[in-house]
From TrEMBL, chains A, B, C, D:
PANTHER family: DCTP PYROPHOSPHATASE 1. This is Nucleotide pyrophosphohydrolase. It comes from the Bacteria. It holds the Pfam family MazG-like. The lineage of its organism: Bacteria, Bacillati, Actinomycetota, Actinomycetes, Kitasatosporales.
Length: 121, 121, 121, 121
């Protein structure tokens, strides 16, 4: 599933996570209910980084190396639990997202395609 | 937008999401602070599906078509906001996850690596 | 603990919630783990109301009657689950908060008490 | 700041929190949007304590002094941000909860009110 380059592949990372948990006998803890709780906890740890920042300050978090590392680390945690949740329930996250974008393009059509207009809402 | 096969690609979906938001002029709303709040809200909508279930019931949610659709839809929403958050901050989610798994293999070593034992990787 | 006036009392509301759940045989669902998940879901429903608002817009939500009702309703839900969680674990929320404020006054002392100064952090 | 007895009062604690924030010039940070984000973060810190526990284990958390203290501390944090949120928006949390319970008694009526049966209120 890894393509060609040095770039990791989502499905390969999902398999690595599954093997990692299996090797440590963590599967009994990895019920869908527990994994989704852990996912929401990690998402909140991302929120915590931003909770007192202005919108402008929030746009500049990556310029501080320490904060950049923390943000990147929490992104990894959210993605890890999302993939493990998908693994135990047999959900294909990329297919799910593609289907959702298709539906959203129908739900939020561009009002008109005239040049220089194209505004949504 | 998919690469070659029938399988969508994470980076392609991320670009589709960015184009979708840009075409609707949603970028002013898509501050990192707002996107991470939306991410946590979607994660909680996943939690809501499981909040009163026993661990056993939680493992069987995909056998009901309505619940399966709802779960899959929320997975898509979580992934969508995570990718949009990464987009505005220039974070590579796959590289972030790969680095995290590498660190976790160091933090949580397998107790022993005797032949025929080490079930991981 | 005020009982006489028209004002409802926290402990009385906590007892009403406990009786309400007991009368409907909801106690088996009301494990601490489930109640805290429900609490976090309700907190996120509050976040959802504010997620795309600017700080200024967020300060004005009560001027729209529909939004004001929604916000007030979610506050009630958060408080309801917090009290039910405290009920099943035997925690006194007011004593917990008083102790926390005491600790915070020690952790975040006022730097100086000179007239016209008094600035924290 | 407590009224008469040894028991703290919700309104008195709410005033103490407001004075605490004002004395440290924290009001600019205490927008409704930020406070509700902080509330959800604290709720998730409670979830984190329970995320890998079985329902049975979750019922026993208070028997470990360290965990009991952590749980009690997070309860205080959730209540503190809820009260500060109510303060800045002028919401009466006890009136909100009382109105909600009234509505819920209408929404979830007891199946039958035969004498010696109705266990509620």
């Amino acid at each position: 599933m890894t393509t060609d380059s040095e770039h990791p592949d989502l499905a390969a990372l999902q398999r690595r996570l599954a093997a990692f948990a299996a090797a440590r006998n963590w599967q009994p803890y990895h019920t869908p209910k527990n994994l989704v709780a852990a996912l929401s906890v990690e998402a909140s740890e991302l929120v915590e980084i931003f909770q007192w920042l202005t919108p402008e300050e929030s746009a500049g978090v990556m310029s501080d190396p320490g904060t950049a590392h923390r943000v990147t680390d929490e992104v990894a945690d959210v993605l890890a639990y999302l993939l493990q949740f998908c693994e135990v329930l047999g959900i294909d996250p990329l297919a799910a997202l593609e289907a959702k974008i298709d539906r959203n393009e129908f739900r939020f059509p561009l009002p008109q395609e005239e040049p220089g207009e194209g505004r949504g809402e």
